[in-house]
Write the C-alpha cells for this entry.
Amino acid sequence: MVIISRIRTDRLPFSSIRWQILLSFLLIIAVSFAIMLSRLTGFVSDYLYEQRIRQDSLSVEKLASAAAPLLDSGNYEGLGDTLTSSGGEMGGRLLALDADGKVQYDTFGRLQGCRLQLP
C-alpha cells in the first residue's frame, strides 16, 4: 500500500506568492520609516541649532548692554570680571572691542591690544 501525501517537502521557505507579497510590503514599510527617521532627525537638529543661536545671541546682547558702560568709563577691572564670568557661563571666548577694532579685553588674554579687521 502506498500513501501519497499532498504536502510537498522540497519547497524553499518563503517561496509562495503570499510570503513574497508580505515581505515586499514589510520592506516598503521599513524603507519608509528609515526615510522619515532621517528627515525628522534633520529637522529637529536644525531647529535645536537655530534655537541655540538665538539663545546665545540674546545672552550676548544682554552682556553687551551691561559691559558698554564699563568700557566707556574705563573700568577695566569690572569689565574683566563681567566678561570672564559671562564667558565661563556661555562656554566661549569674549572680546571687548572699541570703535576702531582694537581689543580692549580678551577673556583668553591673547589678543589684548591687537587691532582686528571689522566688517
